[in-house]
Amino acid sequence: MTTVAATRLSADLAELESEAIHIMREVAAELAKPVLLFSGGKDSIVLLRLAEKAFRPGRFPFPLMHVDTGHNFPEVIEFRDRRAAELGERLIVASVEQSIADGRVRDETGPRASRNRLQSVTLLDAIEEHGFDAAIGGARRDEERARAKERIFSFRDDFGQWDPRRQRPELWSIYNGRVRRGEQVRVFPLSNWTELDVWRYIIAEDIEVPDLYLAHEREVFRRDGMLYAHSQFTELLPGEEPFTASVRYRTVGDMTCTGAVASDADTLEDVVAEIAATAVTERGETRADDRVTEAAMEDRKKEGYF
Amino acid sequence: MEAAFATRPLLRVATAGSVDDGKSTLIGRLLYDTGSIPPDQLEQIREASIRRGAIGGVVDLALLTDGLRAEREQGITIDVAYRYFQVAGRKVILADTPGHEQYTRNMVTGASTADLGLVLVDARTGLNAQSRRHAAICALLRVPAVWCINKLDLVGFSQERFDAISTEIAELALREDLDVAGILPVSALHGDNIATRSEQTPWYDGPTLIEVLDAAPSIAATVDGPLRLPVQWVIRPQDQGHPDYRAFSGRITSGTLRPGDEVVLLPSGRTSRVRAIDVDGVELPEAQAPQSVAVRLEDDVDAARGEVISDPAEPPIVTRELQIEVCWMSEQPLAPRSRVLVKHGTTTVKAVVDALVDRLDAEAFERTPSPDQLELNDIGHVHLRLGASLAIDLYREHRATGSLILIDEATNETVGAGMIVSAT
Fold this sequence. Notes:
Distance between the termini of chain B: 54 Å
Radius of gyration of chain B: 24 Å
Number of helices of chain B: 8
Number of helices of chain A: 9
Helix content of chain B: 10-25%
Oligomer: heterodimer
């Protein structure tokens, strides 16, 4: 073991980190069969670092799980598999492709097709199949208005539904994770983190992230004012022309609904400086799935979405 | 570059109120004046305001804070919403709660994690039932409160009016032992004394609201107090690399911990010394509240989740009886002989209600002895008998080890918030 004089984290990040570790240990201790949702995105990458701090040198008291839509960025999938292997932890991949093949859901078609909503079915099926009673996720309250009201321990019924009017009061840092058979809790250790906090933590802890968070050359096309990757999963509308641009991603979701940002920021420090100066929220800037209606996120959460 | 971001301890603020008293405007103003509203969000609520028939393109800032569809449709706030902004390099977490009596439990929830309460008073009406209740809840949860005398523009920025309300607050504070962190003359609508000192109040030489937030102490974790570390999880890899490794992990809620320190584990009463403190393979020469750590002890202590690693010179109290101040949060009333689960720190025990001691009228600050029952949103003293011993502190001395929640064993719902008043 090595000894260091002091942590490099600033006081507020150290407190957020400590809170998140406390939450993870509560889940491990109070729930029978938790799982940590790992997508290869920056928030769940931070969750893995926090899990190391919470449980090492022991093994994680839960497996990792990814709901793979089949439309993910290949470099993120590569990163996901490599990271899980480095940690020596078990990774379960729940496949939307399989849900479609099994007839559980029907794929959307057309140029604006998205598998975003289909994920909820695959997630709930996987939770049921493995008997998980808690799923730890990287969602933050600063992402969206409905999330600003969600508890850290967010209780879901047999159908995975969130009822915002029936949330358990959450007092001090005493979490009530008691569930009945078939019910589950979704747990959000990063609830009080902002997007900037996540990036500052990644830099301070020197955590590796997939390359697409940094500026790179990519073939993209413009739709509704956003830049999308031109891939085998996207169908162009009349008038849409692919072109090459220097872009980076701010969130990592499906290639079909995650927009890129024109940027030359090729270091994490530059990315943070850009985000700090930017005028748009990450979901507003890069997620088509949240632009559908005023309550798009609330509606999806009620159906079992994260 | 790091200096551009928060580097100081977090500040958690709780506010309560309804649309009428200008709470949403005040929050909107705070977010706006600290540059915390991204233009796309502002644009979104501007469009929504117009759709809802706002006159003259006035942006309804309440739409920013009302996150749920039902709230927007009914123009009310139902639940606690959390907002994040920065004040002079300090990250602020604002718990925004509704103000009506039926939402007392939400106010208690918001205040439970707060370093500072923010109480709103309408300058035209002075102290009303709602502002008194907010003050009472802050006092119960031992959160200092800053009072904003709002809508001062509607009384012509009258010093006389401000002084009269200030006197009323000071008298109440003296009588009820309230911790007043400031009384400010403000207009949230126009921004007077929020981020910048108002020219309309030359008679006021106190701080702006932003200055109050900047200077307010974080009280959630006390570094100076005696050691408290409730054990959450025992780390025991039992693999080739670590055949004998065994650490007690948890979050330090009070005090400082160093290798060599004598400790006592309560309620079991075992004693030992700290061999090492580590986090993911890195040994620390010292750890303090509110850090999450793993602690290895010199002796092969067979302890588990639920023990509190403590300072032997100032240990917690081990008891099977408690008097608590409870805020009851269930529609099913609490009556004598009720059976509940108590979750305290990392321990859950069965408990029975021996007696309802009194009920508080939070608006009049008056107590009625021996009520028949406590109903939803009622606050009162309750005597509990526990099925097993707990290692506790009094809430007024240690927030983390002095608080508990009550759980209904049949429904698993959280039905009460308790602050420990005494161990008898």
